[in-house]
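Human:
Care to share another protein and its fold?

Assistant:
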Amino acid sequence: MSDLRQEIGNRRTFAIISHPDAGKTTITEKFLLYGGAIQEAGMVKGKKNSRHAVSDWMEIEKQRGISVTSSVLQFRYGDKCINILDTPGHQDFSEDTYRTLMAADSAVMVIDASKGVEAQTRKLFKVCAMRGVPIFTFINKMDRDSRDPYELLEEIENELGIGTFAVNWPIGSGKEFKGVYDRMDDEVIAFEGVDARHEVAATHLKFGSDELKDLLTEQQYSTLSDDIELLSGAGDEFDLDAVHHGKLSPVFFGSALTNFGVEPFLKKFLVMTPPPTARQADVGEIDPFEDHFSAFVFKIQANMNKAHRDRIAFMRICSGKFERGKDVWHVQGGRKMQLAQPQQLMAQDRSIVDEAYAGDIIGVFDPGIFSIGDTVCDPARKCTFSGIPTFAPELFARVRQKDTLKRKQFVKGVEQIAQEGAIQIFREPASGMEEVIVGVVGQLQFEVLEYRLKNEYNVEVIREMLPYEHLRWIENIDLDTFDYHKLTLTSDTKVVQDMRGNYLLLFTSPWNISWATDHNEGLELAEFSENA
């Protein structure tokens, strides 16, 4: 038992979140460099650069230089086994990020020092706040001209409603960036060199030393002295319990591109961030350190290996130890099974694993039996974890294949991509799958859908945008006896069904939603559906 506790206690599972272009993928790769998982970081520069980030494995990501799907990366650093969940920064893929945050124990929020808190950061933070996820802030790009650090901290506190504690403090920015003062170790980590294209060296100097006075101008030294005094008198006290409950965010300053401040951040983060945390299930709270294995599916990805047309279900292990070949209970399927080809992942590279522990993320081969939110557990101790909500999309289009002979590939493609959670698909009752209504959060999801259908399933499609903007699930009905013809609806409201057979209503305006509830006594509509 002591070995089990030690293995689980050494796990750290966290998501990296940010607005696009804040430097999230760069900082992820620097972590991998320190862990020896990669030898060279791939710079994300878009179409013209042949290199791409190791965490961006999908072809469209390499071409466009953006992350459109969450990737899972595992590596070791010291005695810790680290699982990084790298999330899409683009707001059109926020639902994938939401599901990924359900599998994380903490989050690293990367903020651009010149831009501060941006729209997508607010949205992602709300998701973390909903679950009380501990948030660690890395203010990036200090090697460029940045905003006043006090302003940045104030903005984080005001915009996100969370306390901040500056673990280190920047000395200048841009060409005047000289390093950071580490408040906990009472030393300055000096930034050597101003060429952002190369990694820089860091020198550790005691505050008050002659070497530091020689390095800084008189003005910089004086400002730093005042800042140290002000921070110790005016800032929040460091409270690890408040950090673990998502009430206080430790803040670090640095530059991921030049590799400055990333490793000191990683070291302190691994000490501050919690080991695997308990999860809520129908039988109560599941302790990660208990003997019995349990896990839930938070992501499904088809065609990770295009040559094999495979489909991988990603599972977060919540308790105990996973052992290859051992029987598990699939709650939603109601049967015993063995998890086929269990793998741990480094983006597109995978290795078969014989054992894994609470906190780890494993990928298993999925022949089409798993859905997002499913629970697998020890047959001797059955439990069901809370489902992962599906949110209502905001853009809708009718999609059909150009070539009628490719109907089979079209149906397979849209169904598999929908099962991943990348899109939602609906059909009109009593109609087939010759054409489907696709719902997405953002326009870019349509482009990714069309790209993947063409490149992975060899199907070109015709897309016709629809005027609907709101979708609601009909809650209080018996699917066996429900007659949608009896609903009194406006002419521009449409009845559809999702993949599970649930009935939903598509509306063109909020007024139509009110009209439907006013004219159909007892009708209950929901903005999201719980995948249980």
In short: Residues 35 and 77 are 5 Å apart (CA to CA). Residues 9-175+237-272 form a domain with the Rossmann fold fold (CATH 3.40.50.300). The radius of gyration is 25 Å. Residues 39-51, 54-58, 64-70, 194-198 have pLDDT under 50 and may be disordered.
